[in-house]
Amino acid sequence: MPFIDDNPASRLQWKNSSSRSRTLTRERAGETDLPPPLPPAARLRPRPTSSPFLAPAPAPAPAPPPSVLCEDVYFAYLRHELRGGDSLLDGQWPGFSALKDPDGLSRRCITCFAVSFFGRRNRDHRAREQGVRLYVDALGELNARLSLPRDSAPGQTVLAITILTAYEYLTATSPTAWIDHMLGLATFFDHHGVDVFLHERHVLTQFEGDRFSMIIAAIAARRPFRLSSDQWTTQSLPWRHARAPKPQRQYLLDLASRLPGMYLAFMEYRNPQKTSSPPAQKAELCHALESNMHDLLRGLRVWEQAWRREDAPRVEERALSEAEQRACGFTTGLVFTDVDGAAYTFVMYNIVLVILLELWKTVRGAAQVTVLPAGVDQEPPTQSLMAQARGAALDICRTLPLYRSGSGSWVDAIQVVVAVRMALVVFRQESESGNTSPRVIWLEGILRQITGESGRGWEIGKYAMQEFG
User: Where is the region Disordered (predicted)?
Assistant: First the structure.
């Protein structure tokens, strides 16, 4: 069952866990070895052609600038590139607020990210080495702060973790380091509790921005999600403490926070030690899984209706040309007026749907009981689950071109990668007969653009959820 078992993140090597001060500590945190300088290649995401559904033509790489530059130049370069629309972050990224603190941990974190970003984009080996050294220093300082009983500046710590996670999206010092960071951030919030939102309002913004990534990390690592209790979800205490309204997107994530627990329940159901369990007990476990997934699917559909009613997203369905249809394998695209708001929420909703429906299908396929408890039928039928997953994957595909066109940008690199991976999970099943569908080829092309050739892109495209898609 590759959807459940073969994600490398589920095989994390948690060695010597007792010696780690926090989940954020990586086994190779002190390593500074770098690969040799990389050859020239096309840009990460070249300027688009007239159609975002067609593959863009490659643009020539810029000439390498000098290696030794002052911090202001690195920051200016980073801002310019993010504003240019060919990155997975944007000019409103919260990490830039670290520049307001001239001598804080978050400032040192944004410095290491900016230097590494410059080095990768310009194939500057010296800048990349400098960025790695700064990263190791910042990670050590962060872990020292996390080892303290209480944090006097939790906002700085949260911002530092956010920035260092972006560094991992960029460089992937290990395939699962971004997971370590996001699990560590969830542990930090769990340790400090909802009172952390009482005095630092901006912490809520960072919590909202990283919440989906924390959930995805818990799913990838097959670990409990620490922030799924009522005080973090239905009671809405973070927003009440911060005296801020709770957006509809966060209600969606309340529902998504149940997914890690469902994965763990299914793994418990399939535990070889449970094979000798009485049939009635196995049937009860199967029924509980079916019931929980049915409730979550119903909750997601109710949320979608509320979102369309209250947020009233403005979207236009646009017919594609014959050339576009041949390239991507579908006939219409979705164009949202609010790219970073409504479109982003819509894609996130469909990611959650695909994850749930694919897990549900896997549960059905692995059922070790042939008869469910009396009066319980398999509803909805498995064919309906497959059709709903296909519809959600298609909606992801029809929205993705907005983020290739430069008219919008993603809050985090991980979300666009997960969106592509989840669509690939669905459409690769249609290609099992031997013929690769145009949709699969198109989606794989997007992943190549994210990663870039010769290391100038975002390495997270190679690793995040790779066995899911």
Answer: 1-63
